[in-house]
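Run log // design_07
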């Protein structure tokens, strides 16, 4: 029986409500739970409407065995899984940062870093619910090279992650076929850019849009999925197969 637009919308909203009532898994860490429903749900609410006409039931191969590569899949679902993987990484990082604040973290820094954490968790959960049964499994992260007691180490890593995330969305936009997905990606990348600007200013005031991320035309730089995953792979233990993504 074919799904109507209303049926798909109701299904997505039901999944979201079910997810909000469940405890967060070990990998997602309970202290990372958003402190505000409005921050936690701002993307869920937008997604319920925008994804109503999208094909979220498209199946793709995924691996639940950590000994095998996690196949992102193909087409738009593959791109969504690609974004989901990056959001898992960012959420896990900020959860770790706030679970044991670095030395000298001010109340203002802690509050805004918590906002970023909550945004990344919302992004992660949005993609997980939108992709449904085609979502890849939870990734295993590796932050052994990061000194979470050091402000310099934490902010340098945050800068790298945020700049990488912005360039990833910029590079993936042209690969997305469904305009609904593209519109949502545009909303998310704008939030990631706000994060990047804040982190850069924490490190060096006024460096929010320097030439390392903005080109001569005033445009944000972009990276292909292969380039992004090669960089992010230093912090992800789970093997990822992106060979079926559109190019």
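design_07 sequence
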């Amino acid at each position: 029986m074919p799904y109507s637009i209303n049926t798909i919308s109701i299904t997505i909203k039901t999944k979201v409500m079910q997810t909000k009532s469940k405890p967060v898994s070990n990998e997602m860490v309970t202290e990372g739970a958003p402190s505000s429903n409005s921050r936690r749900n701002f993307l869920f609410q937008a997604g319920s409407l925008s994804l109503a006409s999208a094909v979220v039931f498209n199946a793709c191969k995924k691996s639940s065995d950590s000994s095998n590569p996690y196949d992102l899949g193909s087409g738009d679902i593959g791109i969504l899984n690609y974004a989901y993987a990056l959001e898992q990484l960012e959420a896990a990082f900020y959860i770790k940062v706030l679970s044991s604040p670095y030395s000298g973290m001010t109340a203002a820094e802690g509050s805004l870093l918590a906002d970023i954490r909550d945004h990344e968790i919302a992004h992660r959960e949005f993609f997980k619910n939108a992709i449904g049964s085609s979502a890849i499994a939870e990734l295993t992260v590796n932050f052994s090279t990061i000194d979470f007691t050091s402000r310099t180490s934490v902010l340098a890593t945050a800068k790298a992650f945020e700049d990488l995330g912005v360039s990833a969305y910029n590079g993936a936009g042209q690969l997305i076929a469904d305009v609904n997905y593209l519109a949502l990606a545009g909303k998310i990348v704008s939030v990631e850019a706000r994060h990047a600007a804040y982190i850069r200013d924490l490190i060096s005031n006024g460096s929010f849009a320097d030439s390392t991320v903005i080109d001569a035309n005033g445009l944000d730089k972009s990276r292909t999925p292969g380039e992004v995953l090669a960089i992010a792979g230093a912090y992800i233990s789970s093997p990822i197969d992106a060979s079926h993504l559109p190019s």
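The chain has one domain: 5-54+81-238.
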